[in-house]
Structures are given as C-alpha cells and as structure tokens.
Amino acid sequence: MKTKTLKTLDKVNIAINHYENGFDSVLIFMPGWFMTKDSESFLEMCKVFGNSTDVIGMDFRGHGKSSGFYTFTSRELLDVRAVVHYARKFYKKIYLIGFSLGASLALLYGSMSKIADKIVAVSPASDFDKIENHFWKKEAWIPTFRKMELKRWVSIRPSIHIQRKIKPIMTVDKITAQTLFVAGENDPTVYPWHTRRLYEKATCKKDFVLFEDCNHAEDLFLAEKEKFVKICGDWLFSDI
Questions:
Q1: pTM over 0.90
Q2: Which of 72, 124, 141, 201 yields a CA-CA distance of 20 to 30 A from 35?
Q3: Whole-angstrom Cα distance, residue 210 to residue 215?
Q4: Distance CA 135, CA 141 (A)
C-alpha cells in the first residue's frame, strides 16, 4: 500500500491509501461523516475487495490525515474530483463505492461527470436537510460504540459555516454510470426511503438491494460480510 496526498482545486490536502494489486480497474472507497480510510471497517473492505481490483481509500477534508474542514457535501465534490483525476492516470475503469454522505457525494459526482464507470451507493441521503439521524436509538449508538476509535474521533474537524448543498435527489436522474443503491432496513441515521427514492428517480442502469435487519452504511458490511461482498462484487466486476 502507498500513501499519498493530493491537492484539491481549493488547496485542501486529501490523503489516500493506494492499494496496487495489478488490475486495470480501481475501486475508490468514500467514507461518510466521522469515518476515515484508516477505520478498521474500511481497511478490511479495502483488503477484501482488493482480490478483484486495485483500491483507493480516501479521507475527505476534515477527516483523518486530510486537511481542511468538513462541509457536509458542500465542498467535498472537489475532494472526489482530485482522487478520480489521480486514478484516471493509471486505470481503464474507475468505480466508486460511497457510504452515507460519501454515497451522496458519489451520486452527485456521477451526475456531474462521466468518468466513473460504475457506482455503489450505500445508505445515501436524498436530501441532507431530511436526514433523520436518530442517534439516541440503540441501532445507532451501539454500532457507533462498537466502532469507537479514539485516534479517528479526535481527527474530525467540521466546518462551522453553513454552506449551500446540492440535493442528490435533484440530480440523480443525470447519472449515466451503472449504479447500485443499497440500504439497511433498520437504518436509524438515513432511513431507507432515501435510497429507494433515489433509485426510483435514477434513469441509468440500476438496481436496489435492501439488507433486512441491518443498519447504516459500513454496518451492512460488518453485519453481512459475505452477502455484502458478493452483491457489490457481482455488480461491479461481473462484466470484467
């Protein structure tokens, strides 16, 4: 694995882990709010999916080893652009897999650029202002407690400035890349109707999968590893 820092158009440093496994395709992992490329769950996913593709894990601004402050999708498309433009120098095919707000950003980027060949959106929010985020429910705080990583927690830097956000539901019909929409039935943070509504409005080649009795974002992988890897892997790599 190589570590590297990329520069965005607004001069923010974006840290990445680049796993070179000898493939001509790359899967870019895009974590959500409060998660990083070095979180245990993402390190494990990068390793597992690395059996089928090269992999890049990224820290959005205000997270982990990247600089800047997190703006909850207002400026993070610049982070995605920096990583994708780096990846296209080396790979014939570029795949995006996003989680939570990372999934929303994957969809937003897919609606504005045709570089990505396929997208997997896990627990995306259709509209940031409509996120439920019932953090007090056991479905939310128990998984959060189990994923407690002090080093990660102290690295998070949110912006205090409210900035304009693009709603994925307003642009999802512009995506041309094949897109898999994935939701957890018991998600207490981004209710599954968000993902369903995005899926229904999308006009690209698409599919929707609901994980029963599962919660939010990377928790789907942690709860149903074999199922998650097979479903996402089949969608991404079936035509390779």
A1: yes
A2: 201
A3: 10
A4: 6
